[in-house]
Amino acid sequence: MWLPLLFFQLLGVVGSNQQVLGFLGESVTLSPALDVTQRNISSIKWLILSNDTWIATYQGGITNTNHFWQYRGRLNLDISSGDLTIKNLIKKDAMKYVFEVGFQGDEEISRKFVLRVEQRLAQPRVTKHHGWSEDGSCTVTLLCSSPNASVNFTWSSTPLATILFEGFRANTAYLLASMRADQVVSFTCNTATALESTSDTLNVECVREPIPKPTPHPPHCVAFGYGVLLGSCLGILLAMITYILRERIEDCIYYLTDK
């Protein structure tokens, strides 16, 4: 989830211009902060583009928020306070706005606003890149990536883990940490800009994983030895058969000769 450092909008005054911050796709309200106590508003005008283009007006009891094509269907004018709400912000909405209000009795007040429109900071993502156990401890490598550019990364852990190395590259942060075996640690990656911050948390459990035993395969030298042994046995057996048959053949020849 995102945690804004500033509230829904950022207000400040630079000279006579009031600075307002809005976020893409969201709504923002330009508020003149009028004191309308015991005063009746007779007219309201919101203008842009060198103060000569109306975008929202209230005159003669009629409200019109469809003067300019860019804002049609996205404006709401509060005639009791003069507040102008712009919905579904786009980049082109970032510009100077002028507010003019007339009261009964010909009194007029004006305000100037400068609207900035920024992209909301997206949530980063933490993943376990590598992990291994050794000598009763567990070493893990975590990767934190952010879709936003120019963000500041910070890491935290609960309970506290031993940080061995931290690295940063482009929109990615790396963390090498050591923790005790059979321990669960929550690692949090925080990303922040000057306007807001957000974070992501990953629970990492250090468990000794059994090393799978490889399937035994006889080495080539052993297989060769088996072949030599088998060949020797067959040779001896063949020699014995030949010796036995030779004696019988000689006996048969000797018997026939005597006849």
Automatic annotation (TrEMBL):
Bilayer-crossing residues are: 223-245
Q: Which InterPro entries match?
A: CD2/SLAM_rcpt, Ig-like_dom, Ig-like_dom_sf, Ig-like_fold, Ig_sub
Q: Which UniProt keywords apply?
A: Glycoprotein, Membrane, Signal, Transmembrane, Transmembrane helix
State its location(s): Membrane
Which residues, if any, are the signal sequence?
Answer: 1-16
Q: Which GO terms describe its cellular component?
A: membrane
Work out whether the entry's keyword set contains Glycoprotein.
yes
Q: What is this protein called?
A: SLAM family member 9-like
Domain of life per record: Eukaryota
SUPFAM superfamilies per the UniProt record, alphabetical:
Immunoglobulin
Which Gene3D superfamilies has this protein been placed in?
Answer: Immunoglobulins (2.60.40.10)
- Record domain Ig-like: where: 124-205
Give the primary localization class: membrane
